[in-house]
Amino acid sequence: xxxxxxxxxxxxxxxxxxxxxxxxxxxxxxxxxxxxxxxxxxxxxxxxxxxxxxxxxxxxxxxxxxxxxxxxxxxxxxxxxxxxxxxxxxxxxxxxxxxxxxxxxxxxxxxxxxxxxxxxxxxxxxxxxxxxxxxxxxxxxxxxxxxxxxxxxxxxxxxxxxxxxxxxxxxxxxxxxxxxxxxxxxxxxxxxxxxxxxxxxxxxxxxxxxxxxxxxxxxxxxxxxxxxxxxxxxxxxxxxxxxxxxxxxxxxxxxxxxxxxxxxxxxxxxxxxxxxxxxxxxxxxxxxxxxxxxxxxxxxxxxxxxxxxxxxxxxxxxxxxxxxxxxxxxxxxxxxxxxxxxxxxxxxxxxxxxxxxxxxxxxxxxxxxxxxxxxxxxxxxxxxxxxxxxxxxxxxxxxxxxxxxxxxxxxxxxxxxxxxxxxxxxxxxxxxxxxxxxxxxxxxxxxxxxxxxxxxxxxxxxxxxxxxxxxxxxxxxxxxxxxxxxxxxxxxxxxxxxxxxxxxxxxxxxxxxxxxxxxxxxxxxxxxxxxxxxxxxxxxxxxxxxxxxxxxxxxxxxxxxxxxxxxxxxxxxxxxxxxxxxxxxxxxxxxxxxxxxxxxxxxxxxxxxxxxxxxxxxxxxxxxxxxxxxxxxxxxxx
Length: 638
Prior knowledge:
The protein is α+β, with helices and mostly antiparallel strands.
């Protein structure tokens, strides 16, 4: 069966409109970790791990993907050389560990069955349409990322092998009762604290001179670089634009309507009001009888001519409709519980029911209007039906154009973007500065930034894409000019530099004042007196937990990092990340225990089990790395 799926993936014509977005995270991960059937010439390798060669192309592609992710997180800011080297080493370490792990799983005899591989195909959400596996969607997804069905199977097979090994390591871990009690004692611990905040404004420098500004600017060059960018030519295809070009013929629209007539049918609906008299204790016959008697009294008032809405507001126990005078609006029969629905849909307009019992109590129902079941005619619903027809036709055309465009790009028969845009009806545009964080109107999707800043695209001699910007929009592009990050002139960033200098000097001054206060407190001074001397006030003493949301995060963290107070309180001075400082006193510690919040205790136990399991796996991976024979090409990323 698995082979049949592969054959279908190879041979079927593709009209699916599902695009790349759902696979973004999956294939980003594969780019970093997956190493499948890689064969390189002897002189072309980045790493040699236990004799297996890892090509420079694979590692550089993974680095390009990582750069796109970092740029997104840093909002386009450039990485410093130190950060770049550290992150590149992290990527190399990951390759070594994952490769050694795969080799160990293979050597240990772990294998994936045909049934498991088939399940991997069918359970992949990116390969599903309306919750069901679609061979068309699968091949479209794989084609978007340049992966064959055979490569996907190889990836899944290796992933299943590795998971068998890693799960065996992780599931062998457990916590003893004593360890769990220690977890509860630590995590549920509370500490009694007091603190005072020293705001940055109170310690702001009177004046910042040019020398300070220049010194800061020169000491932090990486903070004031222009973002890397390209002048980008692009052409996009959208479902709406294709739909606008669809020529609607009356006979085609009629055929579409007949094929989809069931979609335009509407069941009978009724507009009603009700008054609910609840039963205090449904198991007590006396309570039931009392509620029924009350409902009958209300019914008698209605029969005597009292206003239904006024009585509903006065007596009804239904919080959703009482304030509206009992109005339930329009609804189908299946919107209500059976006894209520059965009564309502047997009544005539204007009729008021006897009390009807449901699990909620006794209802008095009034039918206001009836909208019979009917089928929307083509003439009455033409605007809606035509819009749906256009979208359906556009989806098919969109899928055809996407496939044809993909084939054209794979053939490499043209590098002229305007020509392609004209041939496939794409909207042509240009962005003067497209950064790794993206730019309007294309947005900042990481997959697009990754493609735009790839080595192939930056070379400027090829058309990149298509890249899905959504389920109904894709883009192809060409890099026209590349602009590397460069230092911005001091004049352009002067205000930013001044703000940074002011924040740093003010925070340092506030921290210095807090340090002096700690010295006074350690010498026996009264906390309130010291705080008053700073011109501030302190919060009253209170026991707080590790996750107390009312506390500034740094204050909370410092309170639980400090040692337990013994003969006297513990004092701490903190510089705050957002500027200013804090003065903290820890008075007492109250050990935690299990039982106060069983659900939280269960989550804590699972959290620590998972932590220990991750620790075991990381230790295993580190040992594999240490034992691996690794040869590294010093020019990997050049």
